[in-house]
Specification:
Distance between the termini: 63 Å
Number of helices: 4
Helix content: 40-55%
Largest sheet: none
Order of helices and strands: HHHH
Shape: elongated
Mean pLDDT: 78
Structural class: mainly alpha
Number of strands: 0
Low-confidence stretches: none
Length: about 120
Amino acid sequence: MDPDEIPLGGVSVGTGMRRYPETLSLRLPATLVEQVRAGCWSASKESIRQLQQWRDDHPAAVLRPEVIAPEEQAAAEYRRLAASVTTTGGIYRAGIRRGLHAALQMAPPPLVTALDPAPR
């Protein structure tokens, strides 16, 4: 994949339906961050291009989302396109959920019964 093809900034695909007010800082290797970005772009580039075209075709909705009622066909099309975009945030949230689930399924560590080593 040509790195010049991947947009530098994040691509906003919000539908206004889901918000994540919580934050979590992650320290990830730069190669992993780039791999996730490239994977998301590769999986979603056609939908992203269609979303960009949708925005070009509906400038009033981009500037003032309230002008398009949710039941309108254009809004439904936007939600359909946005739902088909794989985001880096979605990948990270899924990884964290998977890691937490795995950690909760593990047997608990043995209890600490003494803080001092046994007498000699």
